[in-house]
Design brief:
336 residues; alpha/beta; Rossmann fold; 2 domains; five-stranded parallel β-sheet; 53% helix; 9% strand
Length: 336
C-alpha cells in the first residue's frame, strides 16, 4: 500500500478537471471571489483541491495548471505547515479524549482575524483553508461570518465541507460554491491503482464499488477490513426476511474481534440497504433482492436506514455497548 498523504502534502488530484478549470479561469480573469465553499461527499478530494489551489496562488499563480512540483519551495513549506501566508483551520486534537474534536471552536476561528491583520509576509496572496467548515459550532460560525463580511484584499478563504446544509445560510451566501462530485469509474481505477498498488484488480474494483466514487473512503474501507465486512453484510442480508437472535449475537461477536469493525460494518450495512431500496424502487433489482425487502414498504425501509444511523451514532458518541448495538441493529432488519 502506498503512503497515504495528507491533503496539504498530496501532489495528486484524481478527477475534478472542471473545478480546477473554474478556479484557474476566475483567477486569470481577475474576478477571483474572496471566499469559496468546496462541497461534496467525504474523501473525494475537496481538501486536496483546496491546498492545490492555495499552493498555486502562493507561488504566484503561474502556469496552465494548478499543479506545483513537490520540489518547489512553496510546495515544501505548505506541506510542512510553515508558509507564513497560509493559515489552516480544522478540528483540533482533544488530548483528554485522545481523538479529534467534533467541532471547530470560536478560538480556532479567531486565529483567522489575527492572521489577516498581519501584512502578507511575501507581498502576495494570503490563503485560509477551513477544512471541515460544516463542523463549526455556532459561535465559531458567527466569528467566521464577521471575517467574510469585510475581507481584506488579496485574501482567499477556502471552506471545505462534506455537508453544505450544516453551514449557516449567511456564510453560504457570501461564498462562491464549487460542488465536487464522486469520481467516475476510470478516475477511481486510476486513484486506487496509485493508492493500493499491491491489491489485486478485483479487490480494487470491489473497493471502488463500495466507496461509491470516494478514494478516501475506499482506503478507509481497506484499512478497516472493508472487503471482509462487505461479505458479512451480504450474508446478513441474505438471511432476511428472518434473522434469528442467535445469528445476530454471532455476528456481533465476530465484529467485536476487529478494531473499528463496528463503524465500518454499520456504514456498509446502511449503504447496501440504501442501494437495495434504490434498485427495487427503480425496478432494477433481482428477484432475490426484491425478496429481502418484500416484508415492508420501501418507506418503512427508509425509516430502518435512519434508525440504523442513529443507533451507530449514539453508540460511538456515548461509548455504548457496540455488541448490543449490532444486535439491536440486526433485529431492526428482521421482519415483524
Amino acid at each position: 500500500m502506498s503512503e497515504i498523504l495528507q491533503p496539504r502534502e498530496n501532489p495528486h488530484l484524481f478527477g475534478h478537471p472542471a473545478a480546477e478549470s473554474e478556479l484557474l479561469k476566475a483567477t486569470r480573469n481577475g474576478r477571483l471571489h474572496h471566499a469559496w465553499l468546496l462541497t461534496g461527499p467525504h474523501g473525494i478530494g475537496k481538501a486536496t483541491l483546496a491546498y492545490r489551489f492555495a499552493r498555486w496562488l502562493l507561488a504566484g499563480a503561474k502556469g496552465e495548471s494548478l499543479a506545483l512540483s513537490p520540489n518547489h519551495p512553496t510546495y515544501r513549506r505548505v506541506a510542512v505547515g510553515t508558509h507564513a501566508d497560509l493559515l489552516s483551520i480544522e478540528r483540533e486534537w482533544d488530548p483528554k479524549r485522545k481523538r479529534q474534536r467534533g467541532e471547530i471552536l470560536v478560538e480556532d476561528v479567531r486565529r483567522i482575524a489575527d492572521f489577516l491583520r498581519l501584512t502578507p509576509a511575501e507581498g502576495g496572496w494570503r490563503v485560509v483553508v477551513v477544512d471541515g467548515a460544516d463542523a463549526l459550532n455556532r459561535h465559531a460560525a458567527n466569528a467566521l461570518l464577521k471575517v467574510l463580511e469585510e475581507p481584506p484584499g488579496r485574501t482567499v478563504l477556502l471552506l471545505v465541507a462534506n455537508a453544505a446544509g450544516r453551514i449557516l445560510p449567511t456564510i453560504r451566501s457570501r461564498c462562491r460554491q464549487l460542488r465536487l462530485s464522486p469520481l467516475r469509474q476510470e478516475d477511481m481505477e486510476q486513484a486506487l491503482l496509485a493508492l493500493l498498488p499491491e491489491q489485486s484488480a478485483e479487490e480494487r474494483r470491489k473497493l471502488a464499488s463500495l466507496a461509491e466514487g470516494s478514494p478516501g473512503r475506499a482506503v478507509l474501507l481497506f484499512e478497516g477490513q472493508g472487503l471482509e465486512l462487505a461479505d458479512l453484510v451480504d450474508e446478513v442480508l441474505g438471511d432476511l426476511p428472518r434473522l434469528d437472535l442467535a445469528r445476530a449475537y454471532r455476528v456481533a461477536d465476530a465484529l467485536g474481534a476487529g478494531e473499528n469493525a463496528f463503524p465500518v460494518f454499520m456504514q456498509l450495512l446502511r449503504a447496501r440497504l440504501a442501494r437495495l431500496v434504490r434498485e427495487v424502487a427503480s425496478g432494477k433489482a433481482e428477484a432475490q433482492e426484491r425478496e429481502i425487502l418484500a416484508p415492508r414498504a420501501l418507506d418503512d425501509w427508509a425509516e430502518v436506514w435512519h434508525a440504523l444511523g442513529s443507533l451507530a451514532d449514539e453508540a460511538e458518541t456515548f461509548h455504548l455497548d457496540q455488541r448490543q448495538a449490532i444486535v439491536n441493529g440486526l433485529q431492526l432488519l428482521s421482519a415483524r
